[in-house]
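Quick illustration, no need to memorize.
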Amino acid sequence: MPRRSSNTRVRSHTLVGIRWVGVTGQGITLLTVYYGFGFTFPIVLAIAAVTASATVNMFVLLRHWARPHIGERDAALYLGFDILQLGTLLYLTGGLLNPFQILILAPIVVSATVLSAVSTVILSVLAMGTVTVLAFEYLPLPAPNPIPHPDPVFIFAIWVATILAIGFTAGYVYRVAREQRRMQDALAEAQAALAREHQVSAVGAIAAAAAHELGTPLATINLVAKELARDLPPDSEHGEDAALLLSQAERCRDILAELSARPQGDTGESFYKGPISSLIEQVSQNPGSDDIDVVIQRETTASSENPEPRVVTMPEIVHGLGNFISNAKQFATTEVRVVVEWTPELCQVTVQDDGPGFSPHILSRLGEPYVSSRRESEGHMGLGVFIAQTLLERTGARVEFDNGADVGAEVKVTWPRNRLEQENAT
Protein backbone atom coordinates (compact mmCIF):
# COMPACT_ATOMS: atom_id res chain seq x y z
CA MET A 1 0.00 0.00 0.00
CA PRO A 2 1.51 3.33 -0.98
CA ARG A 3 1.95 5.72 1.89
CA ARG A 4 1.54 9.40 1.83
CA SER A 5 4.84 11.10 2.12
CA SER A 6 5.80 13.14 5.10
CA ASN A 7 5.47 16.35 3.09
CA THR A 8 1.68 16.09 2.86
CA ARG A 9 0.25 19.58 2.69
CA VAL A 10 -3.11 21.06 3.70
CA ARG A 11 -4.67 24.17 2.25
CA SER A 12 -4.20 26.91 4.82
CA HIS A 13 -7.46 28.71 4.01
CA THR A 14 -9.41 25.46 4.42
CA LEU A 15 -7.96 24.75 7.85
CA VAL A 16 -8.32 28.36 8.99
CA GLY A 17 -11.92 28.47 7.77
CA ILE A 18 -12.84 25.29 9.65
CA ARG A 19 -11.22 26.58 12.83
CA TRP A 20 -13.03 29.94 12.57
CA VAL A 21 -16.33 28.07 12.40
CA GLY A 22 -15.34 26.20 15.57
CA VAL A 23 -14.23 29.32 17.42
CA THR A 24 -17.42 31.20 16.49
CA GLY A 25 -19.63 28.29 17.51
CA GLN A 26 -17.86 27.93 20.86
CA GLY A 27 -18.17 31.63 21.65
CA ILE A 28 -21.86 31.81 20.75
CA THR A 29 -22.66 28.64 22.70
CA LEU A 30 -20.85 29.79 25.86
CA LEU A 31 -22.46 33.23 25.87
CA THR A 32 -25.93 31.83 25.15
CA VAL A 33 -25.73 29.21 27.89
CA TYR A 34 -24.27 31.60 30.49
CA TYR A 35 -26.30 34.73 29.81
CA GLY A 36 -29.33 33.32 28.02
CA PHE A 37 -30.10 30.24 30.13
CA GLY A 38 -28.46 31.34 33.35
CA PHE A 39 -26.12 28.36 33.69
CA THR A 40 -23.15 29.08 35.93
CA PHE A 41 -19.63 27.99 35.08
CA PRO A 42 -16.20 29.71 34.91
CA ILE A 43 -17.11 31.95 31.99
CA VAL A 44 -13.87 33.96 32.17
CA LEU A 45 -11.70 30.86 31.84
CA ALA A 46 -13.92 29.48 29.09
CA ILE A 47 -13.78 32.72 27.10
CA ALA A 48 -10.00 32.77 27.63
CA ALA A 49 -9.78 29.30 26.04
CA VAL A 50 -11.84 30.49 23.07
CA THR A 51 -9.69 33.61 22.79
CA ALA A 52 -6.56 31.47 22.80
CA SER A 53 -7.97 29.43 19.91
CA ALA A 54 -8.83 32.62 17.99
CA THR A 55 -5.29 33.92 18.62
CA VAL A 56 -3.74 30.73 17.27
CA ASN A 57 -5.99 30.93 14.25
CA MET A 58 -4.89 34.50 13.58
CA PHE A 59 -1.28 33.33 13.92
CA VAL A 60 -1.91 30.57 11.36
CA LEU A 61 -3.61 33.01 9.01
CA LEU A 62 -0.79 35.58 9.16
CA ARG A 63 2.02 33.04 9.06
CA HIS A 64 0.67 31.25 6.01
CA TRP A 65 -0.93 34.21 4.27
CA ALA A 66 1.49 34.12 1.34
CA ARG A 67 1.59 30.32 1.18
CA PRO A 68 -1.48 28.36 0.11
CA HIS A 69 -0.49 25.20 1.97
CA ILE A 70 0.49 24.12 5.47
CA GLY A 71 2.97 21.32 6.07
CA GLU A 72 1.76 18.15 7.74
CA ARG A 73 3.72 18.76 10.94
CA ASP A 74 2.21 22.23 11.43
CA ALA A 75 -1.30 21.02 10.56
CA ALA A 76 -1.01 18.19 13.10
CA LEU A 77 0.16 20.63 15.78
CA TYR A 78 -2.77 22.96 15.13
CA LEU A 79 -5.25 20.08 15.30
CA GLY A 80 -3.59 18.83 18.48
CA PHE A 81 -4.07 22.27 20.01
CA ASP A 82 -7.74 22.14 19.03
CA ILE A 83 -8.15 18.84 20.89
CA LEU A 84 -6.54 20.24 24.04
CA GLN A 85 -8.51 23.50 23.81
CA LEU A 86 -11.80 21.61 23.48
CA GLY A 87 -10.72 19.39 26.37
CA THR A 88 -10.21 22.50 28.50
CA LEU A 89 -13.70 23.76 27.67
CA LEU A 90 -15.20 20.37 28.49
CA TYR A 91 -13.31 20.30 31.81
CA LEU A 92 -14.88 23.65 32.71
CA THR A 93 -18.39 22.57 31.66
CA GLY A 94 -19.07 19.05 32.93
CA GLY A 95 -16.52 16.80 31.24
CA LEU A 96 -17.99 13.82 29.43
CA LEU A 97 -21.47 14.75 30.67
CA ASN A 98 -21.39 17.77 28.36
CA PRO A 99 -23.27 16.85 25.15
CA PHE A 100 -20.73 18.84 23.11
CA GLN A 101 -17.98 16.35 23.96
CA ILE A 102 -18.82 14.63 20.65
CA LEU A 103 -17.05 17.54 18.90
CA ILE A 104 -13.71 16.05 19.92
CA LEU A 105 -14.15 13.87 16.83
CA ALA A 106 -13.88 16.90 14.51
CA PRO A 107 -10.05 17.24 14.55
CA ILE A 108 -9.78 13.46 14.10
CA VAL A 109 -11.98 13.56 11.00
CA VAL A 110 -9.93 16.41 9.51
CA SER A 111 -6.68 14.56 10.19
CA ALA A 112 -7.93 11.26 8.79
CA THR A 113 -9.07 13.04 5.64
CA VAL A 114 -5.94 15.02 4.77
CA LEU A 115 -3.02 13.86 6.93
CA SER A 116 -0.98 10.67 7.09
CA ALA A 117 -1.76 7.59 9.15
CA VAL A 118 0.99 8.45 11.65
CA SER A 119 -0.42 11.92 12.34
CA THR A 120 -3.94 10.53 12.61
CA VAL A 121 -2.86 7.86 15.11
CA ILE A 122 -1.00 10.42 17.24
CA LEU A 123 -3.98 12.79 17.30
CA SER A 124 -6.35 9.89 18.06
CA VAL A 125 -4.19 8.86 21.03
CA LEU A 126 -4.15 12.48 22.23
CA ALA A 127 -7.96 12.65 21.96
CA MET A 128 -8.34 9.36 23.82
CA GLY A 129 -6.02 10.59 26.54
CA THR A 130 -8.02 13.82 26.84
CA VAL A 131 -11.28 11.87 27.11
CA THR A 132 -9.75 9.60 29.76
CA VAL A 133 -8.70 12.59 31.89
CA LEU A 134 -12.17 14.11 31.52
CA ALA A 135 -13.72 10.89 32.81
CA PHE A 136 -12.10 11.53 36.21
CA GLU A 137 -11.42 15.28 36.38
CA TYR A 138 -14.04 17.90 35.51
CA LEU A 139 -16.10 20.68 37.03
CA PRO A 140 -19.82 20.00 37.60
CA LEU A 141 -22.15 20.26 34.63
CA PRO A 142 -23.62 23.79 34.71
CA ALA A 143 -27.37 24.00 35.33
CA PRO A 144 -29.81 26.33 37.16
CA ASN A 145 -30.47 23.55 39.66
CA PRO A 146 -27.82 21.17 41.06
CA ILE A 147 -27.57 17.87 39.14
CA PRO A 148 -26.87 14.74 41.22
CA HIS A 149 -23.46 13.20 40.65
CA PRO A 150 -23.90 10.46 37.98
CA ASP A 151 -23.21 6.82 38.64
CA PRO A 152 -19.58 5.82 37.84
CA VAL A 153 -20.87 3.08 35.55
CA PHE A 154 -22.64 5.71 33.46
CA ILE A 155 -19.43 7.76 33.17
CA PHE A 156 -17.53 4.59 32.25
CA ALA A 157 -20.07 3.79 29.52
CA ILE A 158 -19.73 7.28 28.03
CA TRP A 159 -15.95 6.95 28.15
CA VAL A 160 -16.01 3.59 26.36
CA ALA A 161 -18.42 4.88 23.71
CA THR A 162 -16.29 7.96 23.06
CA ILE A 163 -13.06 5.96 22.83
CA LEU A 164 -14.67 3.56 20.37
CA ALA A 165 -16.10 6.44 18.36
CA ILE A 166 -12.65 8.04 18.08
CA GLY A 167 -10.99 4.80 16.96
CA PHE A 168 -13.73 3.80 14.52
CA THR A 169 -14.08 7.27 13.01
CA ALA A 170 -10.34 7.67 12.53
CA GLY A 171 -9.97 4.28 10.88
CA TYR A 172 -13.05 4.48 8.70
CA VAL A 173 -12.54 8.05 7.47
CA TYR A 174 -8.84 7.45 6.80
CA ARG A 175 -9.57 4.32 4.79
CA VAL A 176 -12.27 5.98 2.69
CA ALA A 177 -10.12 9.06 2.08
CA ARG A 178 -7.12 6.90 1.20
CA GLU A 179 -9.12 4.91 -1.35
CA GLN A 180 -10.39 8.14 -2.88
CA ARG A 181 -6.85 9.54 -3.14
CA ARG A 182 -5.56 6.31 -4.63
CA MET A 183 -8.34 6.30 -7.20
CA GLN A 184 -7.56 9.90 -8.16
CA ASP A 185 -3.85 9.10 -8.47
CA ALA A 186 -4.60 6.03 -10.55
CA LEU A 187 -6.94 7.96 -12.85
CA ALA A 188 -4.20 10.57 -13.29
CA GLU A 189 -1.82 7.77 -14.30
CA ALA A 190 -4.40 6.47 -16.77
CA GLN A 191 -4.81 9.93 -18.27
CA ALA A 192 -1.03 10.26 -18.55
CA ALA A 193 -0.79 6.87 -20.29
CA LEU A 194 -3.52 7.87 -22.73
CA ALA A 195 -1.79 11.19 -23.38
CA ARG A 196 1.46 9.35 -24.15
CA GLU A 197 -0.37 7.06 -26.58
CA HIS A 198 -1.95 10.05 -28.32
CA GLN A 199 1.44 11.76 -28.57
CA VAL A 200 2.92 8.67 -30.19
CA SER A 201 -0.01 8.51 -32.60
CA ALA A 202 0.42 12.18 -33.45
CA VAL A 203 4.13 11.71 -34.12
CA GLY A 204 3.37 8.77 -36.42
CA ALA A 205 0.75 10.76 -38.30
CA ILE A 206 3.08 13.75 -38.72
CA ALA A 207 5.89 11.51 -39.93
CA ALA A 208 3.66 9.84 -42.51
CA ALA A 209 2.28 13.19 -43.66
CA ALA A 210 5.79 14.60 -43.99
CA ALA A 211 6.91 11.57 -45.96
CA HIS A 212 3.96 11.97 -48.31
CA GLU A 213 4.53 15.69 -48.85
CA LEU A 214 8.29 15.33 -49.34
CA GLY A 215 7.98 12.44 -51.78
CA THR A 216 7.36 14.55 -54.90
CA PRO A 217 10.18 17.12 -54.46
CA LEU A 218 12.58 14.37 -53.48
CA ALA A 219 11.71 12.42 -56.63
CA THR A 220 12.48 15.55 -58.65
CA ILE A 221 15.84 15.96 -56.90
CA ASN A 222 16.65 12.31 -57.54
CA LEU A 223 15.78 12.64 -61.24
CA VAL A 224 17.91 15.77 -61.68
CA ALA A 225 20.83 14.12 -59.83
CA LYS A 226 20.66 11.11 -62.17
CA GLU A 227 20.67 13.37 -65.24
CA LEU A 228 23.64 15.34 -63.90
CA ALA A 229 25.60 12.17 -63.18
CA ARG A 230 24.81 10.82 -66.65
CA ASP A 231 25.61 14.02 -68.57
CA LEU A 232 28.88 14.89 -66.83
CA PRO A 233 32.07 13.71 -68.57
CA PRO A 234 33.84 10.79 -66.86
CA ASP A 235 36.83 12.97 -65.97
CA SER A 236 34.74 15.91 -64.69
CA GLU A 237 35.71 17.36 -61.32
CA HIS A 238 32.01 17.49 -60.41
CA GLY A 239 31.41 13.79 -61.01
CA GLU A 240 32.02 12.79 -57.40
CA ASP A 241 29.68 15.57 -56.19
CA ALA A 242 26.92 14.39 -58.50
CA ALA A 243 27.37 10.79 -57.37
CA LEU A 244 27.26 11.89 -53.73
CA LEU A 245 24.11 13.93 -54.35
CA LEU A 246 22.49 10.93 -56.02
CA SER A 247 23.40 8.56 -53.19
CA GLN A 248 22.07 10.93 -50.56
CA ALA A 249 18.83 11.39 -52.48
CA GLU A 250 18.44 7.61 -52.61
CA ARG A 251 19.05 7.45 -48.87
CA CYS A 252 16.35 10.07 -48.26
CA ARG A 253 13.93 8.03 -50.37
CA ASP A 254 14.63 4.97 -48.22
CA ILE A 255 14.03 6.94 -45.03
CA LEU A 256 10.74 8.34 -46.32
CA ALA A 257 9.69 4.87 -47.41
CA GLU A 258 10.18 3.64 -43.84
CA LEU A 259 8.18 6.57 -42.46
CA SER A 260 5.39 5.94 -44.94
CA ALA A 261 5.12 2.28 -44.02
CA ARG A 262 2.47 1.36 -41.43
CA PRO A 263 4.32 1.30 -38.09
CA GLN A 264 4.39 -1.78 -35.90
CA GLY A 265 4.27 -2.12 -32.15
CA ASP A 266 3.85 0.99 -30.09
CA THR A 267 3.93 3.55 -32.87
CA GLY A 268 0.21 3.05 -33.36
CA GLU A 269 -0.94 5.24 -36.22
CA SER A 270 -4.57 6.01 -35.58
CA PHE A 271 -5.45 6.48 -39.27
CA TYR A 272 -4.83 2.82 -40.22
CA LYS A 273 -8.01 0.76 -40.33
CA GLY A 274 -8.17 -3.00 -40.65
CA PRO A 275 -9.54 -6.21 -39.15
CA ILE A 276 -9.34 -6.40 -35.39
CA SER A 277 -7.24 -9.56 -35.65
CA SER A 278 -4.63 -7.58 -37.59
CA LEU A 279 -4.57 -5.00 -34.81
CA ILE A 280 -4.01 -7.79 -32.28
CA GLU A 281 -1.13 -9.15 -34.39
CA GLN A 282 0.38 -5.68 -34.34
CA VAL A 283 -0.08 -5.29 -30.58
CA SER A 284 1.30 -8.78 -29.82
CA GLN A 285 4.65 -7.75 -31.29
CA ASN A 286 5.25 -5.45 -28.33
CA PRO A 287 8.19 -6.39 -26.10
CA GLY A 288 7.68 -9.39 -23.88
CA SER A 289 9.14 -12.80 -23.24
CA ASP A 290 10.87 -13.83 -26.49
CA ASP A 291 10.37 -17.56 -25.91
CA ILE A 292 6.58 -17.29 -25.48
CA ASP A 293 4.46 -17.87 -28.58
CA VAL A 294 1.39 -15.72 -29.18
CA VAL A 295 -1.29 -17.63 -31.07
CA ILE A 296 -4.19 -15.64 -32.52
CA GLN A 297 -7.30 -17.74 -33.03
CA ARG A 298 -10.42 -16.63 -34.91
CA GLU A 299 -13.50 -18.44 -33.65
CA THR A 300 -16.00 -16.95 -36.10
CA THR A 301 -16.00 -17.50 -39.86
CA ALA A 302 -16.31 -14.18 -41.64
CA SER A 303 -19.06 -13.84 -44.21
CA SER A 304 -20.73 -11.09 -46.15
CA GLU A 305 -23.44 -10.97 -43.48
CA ASN A 306 -20.99 -11.15 -40.58
CA PRO A 307 -17.65 -9.64 -41.58
CA GLU A 308 -14.81 -9.28 -39.10
CA PRO A 309 -14.96 -5.93 -37.29
CA ARG A 310 -12.60 -3.33 -38.75
CA VAL A 311 -10.98 -0.93 -36.32
CA VAL A 312 -8.35 1.77 -36.33
CA THR A 313 -5.37 1.61 -34.02
CA MET A 314 -6.89 3.75 -31.28
CA PRO A 315 -4.40 4.48 -28.46
CA GLU A 316 -6.88 3.18 -25.87
CA ILE A 317 -7.19 -0.20 -27.59
CA VAL A 318 -3.49 -0.47 -28.41
CA HIS A 319 -2.43 0.28 -24.83
CA GLY A 320 -5.16 -1.78 -23.17
CA LEU A 321 -4.81 -4.98 -25.21
CA GLY A 322 -1.06 -4.54 -25.32
CA ASN A 323 -0.92 -4.46 -21.53
CA PHE A 324 -2.99 -7.64 -21.15
CA ILE A 325 -0.96 -9.53 -23.78
CA SER A 326 2.32 -8.33 -22.27
CA ASN A 327 1.21 -9.47 -18.79
CA ALA A 328 0.18 -12.84 -20.21
CA LYS A 329 3.63 -13.23 -21.79
CA GLN A 330 5.31 -12.55 -18.46
CA PHE A 331 3.45 -15.32 -16.64
CA ALA A 332 2.89 -17.85 -19.41
CA THR A 333 4.85 -21.09 -19.46
CA THR A 334 4.93 -21.74 -23.20
CA GLU A 335 2.08 -19.98 -24.98
CA VAL A 336 -0.38 -17.10 -24.97
CA ARG A 337 -3.59 -17.62 -26.90
CA VAL A 338 -5.67 -14.66 -28.09
CA VAL A 339 -9.15 -15.71 -29.19
CA VAL A 340 -11.11 -13.29 -31.36
CA GLU A 341 -14.86 -13.85 -31.64
CA TRP A 342 -17.54 -11.72 -33.20
CA THR A 343 -21.21 -11.71 -34.01
CA PRO A 344 -23.36 -9.04 -35.64
CA GLU A 345 -23.94 -7.63 -32.14
CA LEU A 346 -20.70 -8.25 -30.18
CA CYS A 347 -16.94 -8.47 -30.55
CA GLN A 348 -14.89 -10.29 -27.90
CA VAL A 349 -11.15 -10.66 -27.44
CA THR A 350 -9.99 -13.26 -24.89
CA VAL A 351 -6.35 -13.35 -23.74
CA GLN A 352 -5.40 -16.72 -22.22
CA ASP A 353 -2.08 -17.95 -20.86
CA ASP A 354 -0.86 -21.26 -19.44
CA GLY A 355 0.78 -19.74 -16.35
CA PRO A 356 -0.16 -19.93 -12.65
CA GLY A 357 -3.30 -17.84 -13.01
CA PHE A 358 -4.64 -15.07 -10.82
CA SER A 359 -4.41 -15.37 -7.05
CA PRO A 360 -7.88 -16.27 -5.70
CA HIS A 361 -7.78 -13.64 -2.96
CA ILE A 362 -7.28 -10.76 -5.44
CA LEU A 363 -9.34 -12.06 -8.37
CA SER A 364 -12.44 -10.15 -7.25
CA ARG A 365 -10.38 -6.95 -6.80
CA LEU A 366 -8.65 -6.93 -10.16
CA GLY A 367 -9.17 -3.65 -11.92
CA GLU A 368 -8.81 -1.64 -8.73
CA PRO A 369 -5.76 0.62 -8.55
CA TYR A 370 -2.63 -0.65 -6.77
CA VAL A 371 -3.71 -4.31 -6.94
CA SER A 372 -1.02 -6.49 -8.53
CA SER A 373 -2.39 -9.09 -10.92
CA ARG A 374 -0.33 -12.17 -10.07
CA ARG A 375 1.34 -13.98 -7.20
CA GLU A 376 4.79 -13.25 -8.54
CA SER A 377 4.20 -9.54 -9.00
CA GLU A 378 4.93 -8.43 -5.45
CA GLY A 379 6.57 -5.05 -5.42
CA HIS A 380 4.70 -3.80 -8.49
CA MET A 381 2.46 -0.77 -8.09
CA GLY A 382 -0.49 -2.64 -9.62
CA LEU A 383 -1.56 0.22 -11.90
CA GLY A 384 -1.09 -1.57 -15.24
CA VAL A 385 -4.32 -3.57 -15.14
CA PHE A 386 -6.30 -0.59 -13.83
CA ILE A 387 -5.00 1.70 -16.58
CA ALA A 388 -5.64 -0.91 -19.28
CA GLN A 389 -9.19 -1.53 -18.06
CA THR A 390 -9.92 2.19 -17.74
CA LEU A 391 -8.72 2.93 -21.26
CA LEU A 392 -10.65 0.03 -22.79
CA GLU A 393 -13.82 1.00 -20.94
CA ARG A 394 -13.54 4.42 -22.54
CA THR A 395 -14.14 2.68 -25.88
CA GLY A 396 -17.27 0.93 -24.57
CA ALA A 397 -15.64 -2.37 -23.61
CA ARG A 398 -16.47 -4.59 -20.64
CA VAL A 399 -13.43 -6.28 -19.07
CA GLU A 400 -13.72 -9.53 -17.09
CA PHE A 401 -10.99 -11.48 -15.27
CA ASP A 402 -11.03 -15.20 -14.51
CA ASN A 403 -8.85 -18.29 -14.31
CA GLY A 404 -8.96 -20.94 -17.00
CA ALA A 405 -10.76 -24.22 -16.52
CA ASP A 406 -7.48 -26.14 -16.30
CA VAL A 407 -4.62 -23.70 -15.92
CA GLY A 408 -3.69 -20.09 -16.50
CA ALA A 409 -5.43 -16.74 -16.45
CA GLU A 410 -8.10 -15.39 -18.75
CA VAL A 411 -9.04 -11.81 -19.60
CA LYS A 412 -12.15 -11.15 -21.70
CA VAL A 413 -12.71 -7.81 -23.41
CA THR A 414 -16.17 -7.45 -24.95
CA TRP A 415 -17.50 -4.57 -27.04
CA PRO A 416 -20.94 -3.92 -28.44
CA ARG A 417 -20.02 -4.14 -32.10
CA ASN A 418 -21.83 -0.99 -33.15
CA ARG A 419 -20.09 0.98 -30.39
CA LEU A 420 -16.65 -0.39 -31.32
CA GLU A 421 -17.00 0.41 -35.00
CA GLN A 422 -18.64 3.78 -34.24
CA GLU A 423 -15.77 4.74 -31.92
CA ASN A 424 -13.26 3.74 -34.56
CA ALA A 425 -15.09 5.58 -37.32
CA THR A 426 -14.58 8.95 -35.64
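The beta strands are 9-11, 69-71, 273-275, 293-298, 310-312, 335-342, 346-353, 398-403, 409-416.
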